[in-house]
Amino acid sequence: MVIKNIDVATVAKKFLVRGYNINPKAAELICNFGEISDEIISEVCRVANGKFIVGEEDVKAAINKIKAKKNGTKARVQKVKSELGEKKDGGFRVIKDVTGTSVCEGKVEDFVCYFNSRLEKLSRILRSRIHPVSIAHIGKRKMESVSVVGMVTNVWERGDRYIIQLEDSTGSINCVASGKTAEIASELLGDEVIGVTGSLRGKTLIADRIVFPDVPINGNGEKVKKDFSIIFLSDTHFGSKEFLEKEWELFVKWLNGEVGGEKGQKLAESVKYIVIAGDIVDGIGVYPGQEKDLAIMDIYGQYESAAAHIDELPKRIRIIISPGNHDAVRQAEPQPSLPSEIRNLFPNNVYHVGNPAYIDLEGVKLLIYHGRSIDDLVAKIPRLSYEEPQKVMEELLRRRHLSPMYGGRSPVAPEKEDYLVIDEVPDILHCGHIHTYGTGFYRGVFMVNSSTWQAQTEFQKKVNLNPMPGNVAVYRPGGEVVRLRFYGE
Ligand SMILES: [Fe+2]
User: Among residues of the chain, what percentage have pLDDT more than 70?
Assistant: First the structure.
């Protein structure tokens, strides 16, 4: 491999911004290792830990660590795949899922890696659209009109304007937003990655335009059309006193062709997949005084009940289960799939994935996310509400991130890679969590928030949460969405 001076200089610059010098031989070793990624730079910094000059021995140690980690990860992935034994089954394929690949230890360095990954992935999307300059270059050359891309580190109001502090890997800049851009700035959440185009006044950027990574106007550009339907469920909350047993039985009867008339039966027959986006059970100790709301006090018993109810569904239907914040997995997102002792309770037509999970159903790209960050967006942006979840989901797509606000109600596990970035535009985004129902299309992406099977609990009454239970979305990709109501009149 021929190493160009330019590669060595790139490596040296990457270390300089992290406060390190690197000797040229050590820089060459990094170039030899392959792509000059943030992963290798961060690992070397961790090994060098405070040294003034990074040497060859630091790079060699870091490379060995990365190789060992990759081997360990591969082995874990293999183990989970063989345990599940069904990750690939005909038309069903998992594209992306943290299950079996988590390497997060929650150290400070993990957070640095995590945010670098977020910045890098989202900047890549924006770079191709607005051709930005590095923030450090601003002021070095005479530039009147300029675009930058960075992570929002702070936003504050000053009179009728907003100041946005934006940071990339080279530096930070203040951008002033007024008029229409001030309205957009008022809805920034912090820690999202945006582009700003405008004119320079000294070292400040006067914003003409704020650009989100957003979904392209025509979505992912593919028009999938299928002759089968997918049912979207979530928040079944088996084990809760408020679980809607009668309504569930009616749903099962409809799927088995026992009720619903000829038209209903035809629709039921078209269902090939059921996707459940989290909160399969009510859990234990999720909120203060939850025991008063529980019919089954033991978590294993709750999953046994869940498995028995799901066993009633027709076996021709494939069921995909992703966990939520009431389930028996770590609370921080991304969450892995349910543990094997729980997965084993479910019948063979059930497939378990993590949260979020990006899957392919016979060519239909589906992004499943429980939706905890919806709480953060509704709290932060006044025009959004729980009654119209699809409008909140639009904001997730616009930001190309499932949990754009760090430090809110949604805990995030600092994985080396940010699994919550919406790298690839899906055909469908499926969320739950807030127990209301809503569907819509945004730039070609079908969005569905899939209700609940739990009536209002005492706790929800107290916090003024009005669920919309027993609503079922039946969607034929490329075709119609049918809303079925199994609860109320
Ligand atoms: Fe829930």
Answer: 92
Q: How far is the CA of 321 from the centre of ligand 1 (A)?
A: 14
Contact 122, 397 (CB under 8 A): no
Q: What pLDDT, in 10s, does the model give residues 102-146? A: 777 777 888 888 899 999 999 999 998 898 999 988 876 666 789
Calculate Rg over the CA atoms of the chain: 24
Task: Report the separation in Å between the CA atom of 482 and the middle of ligand 1, taken as the mean of its atom positions.
Answer: 22
| Residues 474, 486 contacting (CB under 8 angstroms) | no
CA atoms within 13 A on the CB side of 257: 8
> Where is 362: in which H helix or E strand?
none
pLDDT at 245: 96
> Separation of 418 CA from ligand 1 center, angstroms?
24
Please report the domains of the chain, with CATH numbers, ordered by start residue. Answer: 5-70 (1.10.8), 131-211 (2.40.50.140), 229-485 (3.60.21.50)
- Residue 25 Cα to ligand 1 midpoint, Å, equals 55
Q: In terms of Cα–Cα distance, which of 82, 102, 37, 86 is closest to 63?
A: 37
Q: Determine the distance separating the centroid of ligand 1 and the alpha carbon of 349, expressed in angstroms.
A: 23
Give the Å distance between the CA of 279 and the centre of ligand 1. Answer: 5
